[in-house]
Design goal:
- This protein is of the alpha+beta class.
- It is 16% helix and 50% strand.
- It is built from 2 helices and 15 strands.
- Strands 3, 4, 5, 6, 7, 8, 9, 10, 11, 12, 13, 14 and 15 form a 13-stranded mixed sheet that branches. A two-stranded antiparallel sheet has the order 1-2.
- The longest helix has 33 residues.
Length: 266
């Protein structure tokens, strides 16, 4: 709030003076302006007492507004938050995701025997999107993946670009190729899921995987150049369909943990 400067009150007073020698009683003189420092100091103290509570109230109101913009979800859903698409899915167990500002989210989970995939990103994926992210907290206990994740239709494909994991490096099996990009090497895998949950209900579909050969550091800005993975998949005979959503995901399987991640498009 912009405030005007407070100026001390200045008084101009005419007061009869005791006649000096050689003057008449009616002779008067104008005094210099009188600055009452004590009164000014008291007024400023009053204003400071009023102003400080107003400042504190404004800060508190801003904090409450910021907190009210955060949204915590614990049930299966998709939607939009602060300009980003989000997806939350789990089958059993306990998990909740708090949607922060921009592309930020924070998720804690304790799944037992369950499975969970959550994250923020875009409602329509892109084969050429260059994704930036920062995983400020990545603390899985058990099996979990930190990955660029999405789906296409025609064909129905579930895909992963995995930068870090918990106790198990997915998906197992034999690599059908590699791709060198963004400062690391990724193994390429193809897998099939039979009668499994998908964006179109229980279906049989194919998975494409790019999995880094070593876990990527967390707590700093990272980049995934998705086009490099798409081209490598295509060269291995793995073609994507029409993009549905695309998120920077935290997946947990029979595990517990916490992840705090922010994603953006570069």
């Amino acid at each position: 709030m912009k405030s005007e400067a407070i100026r001390p009150c200045t008084q101009y007073r005419r007061r009869a003076r005791r006649p000096a020698a050689g003057t008449t009683v009616g002779d008067t003189r104008v005094e210099s302006p009188v600055h009452n420092k004590k009164e000014v100091t008291m007024e400023l103290k009053k204003l400071s007492r009023i102003g400080l509570p107003l400042v504190l109230f404004s800060v508190l109101l801003f904090s409450v507004t910021q907190q009210s913009n955060a949204q915590t979800i614990c049930s299966n859903q998709t939607g939009t938050n602060n300009g980003f698409f989000y997806s939350f899915w789990k089958d059993t167990g306990s998990a909740c995701m708090t949607l922060g500002s921009g592309g930020n989210y924070d998720v804690s989970w304790n799944l037992g025997s369950g499975n969970m995939v959550v994250g923020k990103g875009w409602s329509t994926g892109s084969s050429t999107r260059r994704v930036g992210y920062n995983a400020g907290i990545w603390q899985p206990s058990g099996n979990a993946y930190l990955a660029l994740y999405g789906w296409t239709r025609n064909p129905l494909i579930e895909y992963y670009v995995v930068d870090s994991w918990g106790t198990f490096r997915p998906p197992g099996g034999t690599s059908i190729g590699t791709v060198n990009t963004d400062g690391g090497t990724y193994n390429i895998y193809k897998a099939q899921r039979v009668n499994a949950p998908s964006i179109d209900g229980i279906r049989t579909f194919t998975q494409y995987w790019s999995v880094r050969t070593s876990k990527r550091p967390t707590g700093s800005n990272q980049t995934i150049t998705f086009a490099n993975h798409v081209n490598a998949w295509r060269n291995a005979g793995l073609n994507l369909g029409s993009h549905v959503y695309q998120i920077m995901a935290t997946e947990g399987f029979q595990s517990s943990g916490r992840s705090n991640l922010t994603v953006w498009s570069q």
